[in-house]
Write a structure and sequence with these properties.
There is one protein chain. With 300 residues, the chain is an alpha/beta fold. The protein has a single domain (4-299), classed as Rossmann fold, CATH 3.40.50.720. Helix content is 39%, strand content 17%. The protein has nine helices and 13 strands. The strands form four sheets. Strands 3-2-1-4-5-6-11 form a seven-stranded parallel β-sheet, sandwiched between helices. Strand 4, helix 3 (90-108) and strand 5 form a beta-alpha-beta unit. Helix 3 (90-108) runs parallel beside helix 4 (137-156). The chain is globular, with a radius of gyration of 19 Å. Bound molecules: NADP nicotinamide-adenine-dinucleotide phosphate. NADP nicotinamide-adenine-dinucleotide phosphate (NAP) binds next to helix 1, strand 2, helix 3, strand 5 and strand 7.
């Protein structure tokens, strides 16, 4: 991939130390952009990424950061990416998903960047679904963040596009307790993975596809204020994804479905890939089995 439109631009990537942000940053560097990563932890800048240390929940820090970087584009990927329902998730989700977004919007509004791209989520409620209430502290914080972006676009003509990101997998995943790394590592060690019923269907998208989709959202003209699905449009039963993974890693193991309780209020959502193709001329390329093989090779 090479996106000449981004050559020589200053791009701020929040969450650049995370799973999606690190893959995105590497791709932006290849396109000739000056990439600024932000992390709460100290990281040495190198020829590729200029690192800034700070916490986006601190508005005065965000103001300083934006004033010093003056980014042409911002990809806001930083967040608390945890779907658990317990009340301990409320404050970290509120602070790291919602407050960080509002801080960036307020601060960037003074400088007029070309576009901000927010990583939204499939977990956000959708008008017309049978259950409209947000299903977790994560879901409500992402939904509120998307709505702030829409309000900034409507009221202040702020150039923001929301990527509705579906279930991402692939090499570089940070949290090894997430479903696929857990299944791969457990099975590779000869142990039985303990799982939920596996009856939820999800739209799984490979990391390289997410990266190219996000970059399209920065460069395609005329899509400000819109939410655009970045997924494959294909639903796969979690049980089938797990069984395929186990077959590829260690076919002698039989995963234990039903050992862990299902999360309440789980929704089934698929990307509207046809609409995305029409709007940004992009679609996902990597099929599930090829993507799983790459993930497995990266872990075992
Ligand atoms: N992964 C998925 O399947 C998926 C699906 C839908 C949507 N998304 C969205 O995509 C984005 C990226 O997800 P991911 O899986 O790449 O997440 P991740 O690996 O957990 O990375 C998130 C990053 O956010 C940074 N961060 C969190 N709070 C921060 C704060 N207050 N200030 C500065 N940095 C902060 C962390 O960096 P430091 O710890 O270095 O500070 C962390 O590396 C998130 O917005 C998520 O909601 C992901």
């Amino acid at each position: 991939m090479h996106f000449s439109e981004l050559n020589n631009s200053d791009i701020l990537v929040t969450g650049a130390s995370g799973f999606i942000g690190s893959a995105l940053s590497a791709e932006l560097v290849k396109s000739g952009a000056r990439v600024h990563g932000i992390s709460r932890n100290f990281k040495e800048s190198n020829g590729n990424i200029q690192w800034h240390q700070g916490d986006l929940t601190d508005l005065s820090y965000v103001d300083q950061l934006i004033e010093s970087v003056r980014p042409d584009y911002v990809f806001h990927l930083a967040g608390h990416v945890v779907g658990r329902r317990d009340v301990q998730q409320v404050m970290p989700s509120f602070n790291n998903n919602l407050l960080t977004t509002v801080h960036l919007l307020v601060s960037l509004d003074k400088y007029k960047c070309k576009r901000m791209i927010l990583a939204g989520s499939l977990e956000e409620p959708v008008f017309g679904d049978n259950v409209f209430e947000p299903s977790s502290p994560y879901a409500v914080s992402k939904f509120a963040a998307s709505n702030y972006c829409k309000m900034f676009h409507q009221l202040y003509q702020f150039p923001v596009t929301i990527a509705k990101v579906f279930m991402v997998y692939g090499p570089g995943v940070r949290d090894l307790k997430k479903l696929l790394p857990y299944v791969i590592l457990t099975t590779a060690n000869g142990n039985v993975p303990e799982l939920t019923s596996g009856t939820r269907k999800l739209d799984w998208i490979y990391i390289d596809d997410i990266v190219s989709g996000l970059i399209h959202l920065a460069i395609v003209p005329g899509i400000e204020g819109q939410t655009i699905d970045i997924g494959t449009g294909k639903l796969t039963l979690t049980r089938d994804v797990v069984e395929l993974t186990v077959k590829l890693v260690n076919p002698d193991i039989k995963p234990h479905f039903g050992a862990v309780e299902d999360r309440v209020m789980e929704q089934v959502r698929r990307a509207n890939s046809q609409e995305t193709l029409e709007k940004i001329s992009w679609k996902a390329k990597i099929d599930l089995e090829s993507g799983l093989k790459k993930l497995i090779n990266s872990l075992v």
